[in-house]
Amino acid sequence: MDYLDQQILMKLKENARQSASDISKEIHLSVSTVIDRIRKMESSGVIESYTVITDEKKTGNDVTALMEISLEHPRYNELFIENIKKNPNIISCYYLTGEFDYLLKIACQSSEHLEQIHHWIKDQGGVRQTRTHYVLRTEKNIYSPLPEAKE
């Protein structure tokens, strides 16, 4: 990946719906070159997918929480992950080092809804301990940083 690919990625991260023509004008490349570079980044896996970032509150999910999960034994990992992937309110799951095994990001309608999710998680096989943090405000929300630009 070179500097031009990084510039294209930066433009796509700002707005993935902008046209190759608009990107080409901003970074001074031909439209066909921009399209070709985007396709190469898609086929190589640099670009995994395109998505929409929503305002959770405007979609009815007024509560965002981060929940740390500790399992009794690693043999529970596979089933735990399988079940977590099925829950639409769990929007991120990270496998961790340290005291807890997983960190979940949960978006839900209310504290009562969070309590239901919490009970559901506690009922999963092998869950030993949880710790929940309410998110008061989101200050930054990006999916992945760009690599440092090199010319």
TrEMBL record:
Keywords: DNA-binding, Transcription, Transcription regulation. CDD domains: HTH_ARSR (cd00090). Pfam families: AsnC_trans_reg (PF01037), HTH_24 (PF13412). Residues 1-62 form the HTH asnC-type domain. This is Lrp/AsnC family transcriptional regulator. InterPro entries: ArsR-like_HTH, AsnC-type_HTH_dom, Dimeric_a/b-barrel, Tscrpt_reg_AsnC-like, Tscrpt_reg_AsnC/Lrp_C, WH-like_DNA-bd_sf, WH_DNA-bd_sf. It comes from Hominisplanchenecus faecis. The keyword Glycoprotein does not apply.
